[in-house]
Amino acid sequence: MRFKHEPDVTLALVNAQCRFAGFLADNGIKTPALFLADRAYARWYTIRGYDVIVTVEAFAAGELREVSDEIAQKTGGLLARMHNIAQAGACHVPGGVLFDPLRENDLFSFAAFRRHEAFLRSVDGALYRGIAEEYHALLQRIRVFENEPKYAVQGDISNGNLYQTADGEIGVFDFNRCGDAVLYYDAVMQAVFEARLMDYPKEIAGKQERLILSAFFRGYHRERPFTRAQQEAFPYLYAMISAFWRGRIQFDEDSLCHAAAAGDAQAARRRMEEIRGRILSRPEMPL
């Protein structure tokens, strides 16, 4: 049983998310069954004076606790099949997603970098200006897919939302972040999310990114081949994600934002030099 009361969540949105999950299940994707009440998946209930949207779904055993290269490859294949089904069925869910690279998102933030513009220019104006110019050049490179059709995506492929069946298949649950996205952007952003922010077996933890990325993309490419244009755009999108990664920009103890807030010019310069290095690093898509 799930309870929802976020300000941006409506009954119509939750029902649309549930219908999409059901459509995926009808087309072979492992996802827990959702139960209907009066021909709707979601209904308002008042519980101790608190209004909530309620949905009920079957329990999924086998929740994944960590991501290995084998799991990453299966997850990439799962995401590709979900994308294929969504596109073939012209599926849409009227909601935003966490990982749209053309807007503020949960993985990286140029806006957080720019908020400290005055201080960073005082530290090294040429360095700041060069980073900003590179960002806008990267943005133009990846905008080539901006007007592609958007389709429904689950929106949060993480080990906490995945499970493995007794026969080794990977299934997915939790469609709370489901919305419409450009499928290529979703594939790359989800892959980096999977490669950086999950729990991993101890033998690869700390050095897992390239291994997990490669496995994820191989699994995806096998089910939904990346076009030449998509492969050529990857280095620029990856550079943007890496350069403005929220952890290094905002959240880590030694982040750029913390250095700027403390007025630490030396630390801020080091962080900007790191950003410049990452923004100029353009690795090919590891297939």
From TrEMBL:
InterPro entries listed in its UniProt record: Aminoglycoside_PTrfase, Kinase-like_dom_sf
Positions of the Aminoglycoside phosphotransferase domain: 9-226
Signal sequence region: none
Protein name: Phosphotransferase
Organism: Candidatus Aphodomorpha intestinavium
